[in-house]
Structures are given as C-alpha cells and as structure tokens.
Fold this sequence. Notes:
The structure holds 3 protein chains of 3 kinds.
Chain A: H1 11-21, E1 39-49, E2 73-85, E3 89-102, E4 105-111, E5 124-129, E6 134-149, E7 152-163, E8 166-179, E9 184-197, E10 227-243, E11 246-259, E12 269-270, E13 274-288, E14 293-304, E15 309-321, E16 324-335, E17 354-355, E18 363-376, E19 379-391, E20 409-420
Chain B: H1 7-16, H2 43-56
Chain C: E1 5-10, H1 14-35, H2 43-48, E2 54-56, H3 59-74, H4 100-106, E3 116-118, E4 121-123, H5 136-150, E5 155-160, E6 163-168, E7 172-178, E8 181-191, E9 194-200, E10 205-208, E11 211-214, E12 230-235, H6 238-263, E13 267-270, E14 276-279
Antiparallel strand pairs in C: 1-5, 2-4, 3-4, 5-6, 6-9, 7-8, 9-12, 10-11, 12-13, 13-14
Amino acid sequence: MTNPTFKKPSQRLLALSTAAMALPALAPPSFAVAPTERTLSYRYTQYNEMSIDPKKVSSINADEGGGSNQRYDIDINQYAFSTPVGDHFSMSIDIQDEVLTGASPWTVTKEDVKGTPSDSSDDEIKLVMSGATIKEHRTEANLATTYYYSTGTISGNVGFSTEDDYESTSAGLSWGGEFDDKQTGVSVGVSYSDDTADPEEGSYKGTELGGKIGGWLNGSDPVVGTAKKESVSGFISGSRILSPNWIVQAGVSYTQKTGHLSDPYKANDKRPDERNLYTFNASSRYWIKPIKAAMHADYRYYTDDWGIESHTLSLALYQNWQKLQIIPSLRYYTQTSASFYSIADPETTLYNYYADDHRLSNFGAITTGLKIVFKQKPVDWILSGEYYVSGADMALDKADEPEHPGLLKYTKFTFGVEHRF
Amino acid sequence: MNPKFLTLPAVLAAMVLLQGCTHVAAYQRGALAKPEMAWSPDHQDATLQKHIYFAKEASSGGAEAAGGGCGCN
Amino acid sequence: MGSPCQIRLRASSLSHAQALCQPLMQEAWRFEAKYSRYLPTSLVSQINASAGAPLVLDSEAAAIIDYAAELYQQSDGLFDITSGVLRTAWDFSSAQLPAAQTIQALLPNIGWQQVDWQNPKLLLPAGMQIDLGGVVKEYAADALAQCAQAQGIDSGLIELGGDIRVFGSLTWPIGISDPRQPSRPLLQLTLEAGGFATSGNYQRYFMHAGKRYSHILNPKTGWPVVTPAGVSVIADNCLIAGSVSTLALLMGEEQCLSWLYDVGLPFLCVFNDGRIVNEFAPSAN
C-alpha cells in the first residue's frame, strides 16, 4: 500500500501541520540548512591538450623559434576548506594553483603544399603558433561566506587571481529564499569582476610576421600600458520540488563586459570594447529509486551581441553501488561564430572588428567523463577522467566556412581526497 | 537580443512556480537531501570545469555569480 | 509510558544500529521523565503544583503547549489538556457511574480558555491540572525517528504504545487488531515513511446498562463520549496521526466520519456495531 502522496492538504490538516512544524523534531528539511561539519579537500588534475597535426602548423615563423605544434599541458592543484561558524554562518576558502606549459596560436595563414603563402581558396589554412617556451604559473583564491536564517540565505564572495602578466579581482553577493513549505526556492545575485593584463611574455609582436603571412594581417588591438576590462553580472533563478524524487530549477542571467576585450596574445584580433550576453538555464535532479541513482540533466542557452549563440546539454548519472559512487557523464556543446570572426575571407568582417580565434568559430564539442568516488567515512577518494573533442562538423548549425585548424581535443585526469570532520 | 530567448524561460517559469498543485510532505524529501541530488555535488570539480570551458569556448557566464578571469588562451 | 514500546532500526552495520538503541531509549525516557504526570519531578507535575504561579517553559515544552492549544481550537474545545482532573471522578475499573454533583464540582477547574498562555509563559490557575498524554507520546516517536536519522540510520520503525513512526527507504509491516477483540488481527498494511496512530475505546472502558462508556471524556460535560471502537490514521508524522485519531474519537460515533473525511488523511474507522470504513488506499487488504 502506498503512502498518502500529493493530495492538497485540507485547511484543518494545514493548520495542524503548521503548528506541528514548530516542534523541533518536525521542522521540515530546508534548502538552506547551515552545515554541521567541516570539510577539507584536495584535488590534483592533469590537463593535456593533444598536439596539433604538424601538417596543420605553419613553419613561417620557425626561424624565430615559433611553429611549435605542442598545446597546453596544465598541472592543477586545488585546495578547499569549509566550516560552519556558529549556528548561522558558514565560511569557505578555495585555492587553485596551476602551472601551464605549451604554445598558443597567434593567427592563421594560407599556404600551398610547399609552405609558400598563398591566397588561393584551394590551399589550406594553417595555424601560426608561438614557440613552446611559455611557462605560466597562476594562483587563484576565493573566500565565501553564507548566512543562514529561517527562510533563506545570504552569501557573499570575493576572489583574486594572479599570474605573470594578468590579475583579476572579483566579488559577488546573492540571496536565496524559500517559500511554500520550503518547496520553492528563489535566488538572486549580482557580481563584479575587474581584470588587468600587462601582456609581454608570449604575446605577439607585430613586426615579426609582417609581410610573411599569406592572406592578410590587420594587426592586433594595441595595448597602451595595461589592458583593463570589467564585467558586471546579475542572475535570477527559481527551483521547485515537483515530487519526493524530483527537483527542477531554471534561471536567467545578464552580463555586460567592457574594456579591452581583444585578445592581446593574438596577431589578428580587434574586438568591440563592449559585450552584452544573456543566458538561460534549466536543470533537473531526479532520484531513480529502483537503482538508487541520481539523474542529472542541465541545459544552458547563451546569446550575446557579438553574434554568438550556444547550447549546452550535460547529463550525468550518480550511481551508488556498495561503498562506491560511479558517475558517467556526457556533455554536448555547440556554438555559432562571432559576427566579426573569419579565417577564410577577412574582408567580410564587420565594423572593422576581426578575429581568427578558434574559440569564436562555429563548432561543436563532446565531453565524455567517468568519475569514481570511494566512500570511506570520514574520507572520500575521487578518481576521474574526461575526454573532450571539438570540431566544426559537430556543430548543430554548420557554417559555410572551413574548420579552424585550432579546434582541439584534450584529456583531463583528476585524483582527489575529501575529509569531513 | 533574440526575442525567442524568453519563451522557453517563460514556460518553465510558469511550470516551476505552479504552487499548490502538489504538496510534498517534509518527511518525503529524504531522497532530495542526498548529496548526489545537489545542484553541484562536487564544488571543486565544477569550478575547474567552468574555468576550462571559459578558456576553451566562447560562452561563459550563467546562473551563479561570475568568478574571476584569467589570461588563459 | 505504561505501554509496550519497540524500536526497530536498519543501518549499514549491526553494531551501528545496536549502538544507537541505547541513546534512543534514553531519549524516550527523557520524554517520560519530563512530561509524565505520574512523576513528581516532571515538568508537568511542577506545572500542576504551581498553584497559580506563572512558569517560563523551555522551547520544546512551549512548542508542545502551542500544539495542544491548536488542537483545542481544531476540536472546538473537545480536546483539552486541562480535562485530566475528571479521572478522579471516573473509576473505570469499578464500573460505577459517578454522581452528577461530583462531576459538576469538577467542571469549573476544566477549560483551556482559563489558562493564561503567552509563549513561553504559562499561568495555570490554582485547582487546574494539565495532562499531556494525548500529545507527548506521539511526538516522542517522531523525535526518536529524527534522532535516529540524524545519526545515519538508514531506515527504522519507532513504536511507543501503538503510536508508530516509520522512516527511511524500507517498508515496514504494521498490523491493526480488531478493536473489539484485540487479540484478533484486522488488517495488515505496509508503511514506508510517516506516522501511524490508533485511538480506540477497547483498552479502557466499562459497560453500564448496556452502554459502552469509553475512557474518552467530554471536557464540557464531564461525561464519556460515545466513540467509535477504533480509529487508525496515517499522516506525515506520528504527532499528526495521533492527534487526528484522538480528535476523531472525541467527535463521537455520529460525527467522526464526516470529520475524518474533512481532514482528508487516510484512515480506518471501526464502529461499535462492527461496521468498518476503510479509507487507507484502494490496495490495502
């Protein structure tokens, strides 16, 4: 026989239930409950981008030490600590420290089979790469605090990131409230970030390639002194418990970025000094009782005034099995290109803006991942691996342009440990 | 801004905010409280993912407060 | 508590479950020590001995009194924790009807409306007594369940004298006996999470001139209510289940069905003539 389920309670029952909820043992579990334990956690990640097919790399700047076909390898260490503070507060610190080596794409060029610059549309577009001498060290720290009260939370966070030639500061504030017997949640927040770049190391210096590149060379957006940019963002989201096993959420956000938005490390790059973007997201968490697994589904839509529109769909299954949790995951991503992006026909770009960055091209990407968690209270051990591939033919809306040779594949392996006490 | 951008959120908002049509009693919410049912069960993993996709793809930003940036290329 | 109790737990290890039984039983005894009217050191006894002096209650006791006050409202005064003094008039073991004057003399000392309750201050007029019997046992079952869950117990059943609270991912079998013949099982059902309580007139009653006088007394008249033989209710938690079944009994045989339908929870009602109304669920057998 089944339990009473979703009948709307009568007035009498509602009155009794409300009075009962005042009793300590019957207060309903809420979205916002101050944590009762401290967590200390560490992750080590090895991120490796696959080398480019040497046939896709131009040797036009090989004499100057460029033309490497190696891409990024990053070693990342993450540390996190979170703790309740009294009955109504919690605090957390997150530190991320990474070391990056590898070469980056400066621009593209057209060459014939002999490696001679050409203008012909029959010839291949190749990447002009920097030398593989870049080694960067970046450290990021984030401090967050949350206040828990009877029907919601207020959270604030500040962050700071620094590397050889780049610094970023950020801050955010958000509020979350609970309604209708804590079945509905609403969340609102704003955030701000400020970046300063002083590009020297590894950045392109226009004179090196002048005259050698086949096709075009418009030059980069000159940086006088330091390059600054700012970002202001706001979001609203709502969540709802639909059944004992199902909770959903949806939200929208708006962000405005201003300042030097061009990429100072690229040879051909001049972007508008403002970007307005909007996102819409929907998420579902569903508990599949017969197999004791949680099904995660997340969708995100993005659009901005640079002409880029993207869709992201992520799925994951958190499967419990004895002392393990096995989590396979899949992500599909597709984006359209920026209106001023071009590698095939540079003269068609708009408003004197142009970019040949592969990240602004039309492409799709698929990530497959597997994570395994060993639960051994009070310590959890985590092992995960992920594989990412991208390509122009994987996009939902295929563009009438050749694929950017810089679209990449990477693998990511993580080992972690989490201690609760 | 693309106008069709708002129709899906409007429909979902209506569904999400449909109050009073079902009531899930407090004691029935045990499954929802499991850590694997959280929006983000692994905070460090989520932070790293966001950072990587920010550096490799064009569409950053979303429901959470914006984090810091980097000179990633 | 005066009635048989049981705690059944299911956890990931036997030792974990066993380690938890003792603290849970201690928690049950804590409730008894604090709220039993029989123990002179209990809070309830202190309140009953206060002789008109105000007392400040702790948050748990205050919440229980608030809840009892709500039950008084919901039952239009039939559920009244100040009606305990009537037991001095009614002796259910002797089957003797008390004299009308005896009952009349007690009535002025009954009536929640006379109590000055401003959370957390309670002022019980001299001569009045409170009895939390219809509330604490059920709440204790819920409190024990919450305590077990907080300790990581996967699933369990807490039973304190017929008031049951079930939690977790297992289903637990529950048997209901025929209120008119307690040794005979009437119905078997399984409950996965929630509270189950039964109120009936079969435990304490006496027969007089062919009429069955239950131990449930009407605080306004001082006389027993002609209650149905038994009412069992399933609710979110044991406190609500117990309150609704007790209130249904207080409504009497005539009104209990319409009241139960109005509340809207699954229930089973057995009448004195043997008629059974089963509103648990279509699939119950």
